[in-house]
Design a protein that fits this description.
The protein has about 375 residues and is α/β, with parallel strands linked by helices. It has a domain of about 250 residues: P-loop containing nucleotide triphosphate hydrolases (Rossmann fold, 3-Layer(aba) Sandwich). It contains 17 helices and 8 strands. Helix 7 packs across helix 8, helix 14 runs parallel beside helix 16 and helix 15 packs antiparallel against helix 16. The chain is elongated and about 85 Å long. It starts with 13 loop residues before the first helix and ends in a 5-residue tail after the last helix. InterPro entries: ArsA/GET3_ATPase-like, ATPase_ArsA/GET3, P-loop_NTPase. It comes from Haloactinopolyspora alba. Keywords: ATP-binding, Nucleotide-binding. This is Arsenite efflux ATP-binding protein ArsA.
Length: about 375
Amino acid sequence: MNPAHPHRAPHLDVDRLIDDRRIRTVVCCGSGGVGKTTTAAALALRAAERGRRAVVLTIDPARRLAQSMGLTELDNTPRAVSGVDTGSGGSLDAMMLDMKRTFDEVVEEHTTPEKARQILANPFYQALSSSFAGTQEYMAMEKLGQLRHRADWDLIVVDTPPSRSALDFLDAPERLGSFLDGRLIKLLSGTAKTGGRTYLKVLHAGFTVVSSALTKILGGELLRDVQTFVNALDTMFGGFRERADATYALLKRPETAFVVVAAPEPDALREASYFVDRLSQDAMPLAGLVLNRVHADHTGGVGIEQAIAGAERLEAADEHRLTAALLRLHAERLRLAARDARTGERFTSAHPDVPVARVPALAGDVHDLDGLRQVGALSAGPES
């Protein structure tokens, strides 16, 4: 072990991961703003150009990145990405999750046409399918299930939604299923079937306070929308629970691999640490951590103190201002590299067995396939 890195983690071999034909799904997860979407797209592109028939499911990617992959339309349908090297027999499709459209598809698939029309037109459903907490995470997994049932691809790469907490992704299916199977929803569904008068008698008999509070909070019209919605949805309750359970089973299978994505920042690595612990707790298959935007420490050159001292001498002599500026820039980069090393060390100390792939910071944003290829190559590069 390198004495300069007493807690050096094992290296995450990205190429070995994406080349493994037993791996059918790679789930990229982590907090927002760490390059998760770019990582997912880069891994899918690299897999395709190494012979996999890959599809990447992205969640609201940056416009330039979307355009670079040929995703000019916000669409729920996988589309072929042009410009991919298919010489090894692979291919790449890409899509962006349309949360509401996916929810609509679930309704249409699991109810009769008449009930589907009732549900899709219901104001409460329209609000639920567009903005209910956890819906985006749940629908990402619904879409994953749909893609897995098709034989078009042998690798699916999922970019998880930018949740407030990385843990929201794992909790969302259970949370939405619990909501739809919940006591209040069951009550509304059951009493709605007995007719309006009996419905009112039941509420007045045992739930006057609750109904009064709900009417004040939601309004009578919205409460009636909820009642109508759950009455139309009653045949789907078991389906939501079954699919939530199926989602967990899918995520736990050995053909699934989780890749946690983070940046060398305390908050991002704290989220990554929580996520690693949760994956371990739930016995889900963790491949490793991709640590993005790492500032490299090019050892053997001018050190921080030397660079600053040299810059100060040149500035005091009022000469070679450009050289002085470059020396200060060099010192700043070394400070950033030292900071990244310390931050990463805290994670690897807590999780010494989690493989890590370190991706150097790039000079600019990724906005085309060449940029994605560069990120993929750096992710799969040798341990530095």
